[in-house]
Amino acid sequence: MEYDDMLDRAMEETPEIDGTSERFEVPDPDIRQEGNVTVYENFQSTCSRLGREDDHVMKFLQNDLGTSGHIDESGRVRLTGEFDATRIEASIDEYVDEFVLCSECGLPDTQLEREQGALLLRCEACGARSATSE
Hints:
The chain has about 130 residues and is α+β, with helices and mostly antiparallel strands. The protein has helices spanning about 5-15, 45-50, 55-65, 85-100; strands spanning about 30-35, 35-40, 70, 75-80, 110-115, 120-125, 130.
C-alpha cells in the first residue's frame, strides 16, 4: 500500500471533532431587568468558572459599567441601571483579558497575587508574571 493511500484511509477513518478547540469558555450572562435594576442571575457560576473572587469581579463590573451594585443573598448581582447581556458580556470579556488569561501563552491557568502592593497575574502553565491594571 502506498503512503498516500494509507494517509487517505487514515483521514477517512478519523472521526470529526465537534466543539471548539478552546477548553476555557465563560458562561453567557443570564440577565433580567427588574425596573431600573439589572439582575445578573448566573454571576456565581461565572466567577467559579473564572476562578476569581466574587468581590473582585463585582468591583471590576461596577467600574467598567460606571454603576453601583451589590451581591444579594442568592449570589446574584444587582446593578443599578439597565444593561443588556451584550454589555455585561463585553465587560466580563475585558475582565478575562485583564485578570484571567496569561499575556504570554494565553492560557487561563493563572492566579492573582499581590507583591509589594501591586496585583500580579502569575501563570501556572508557563511561569510568566505580568502586572495588571489594578
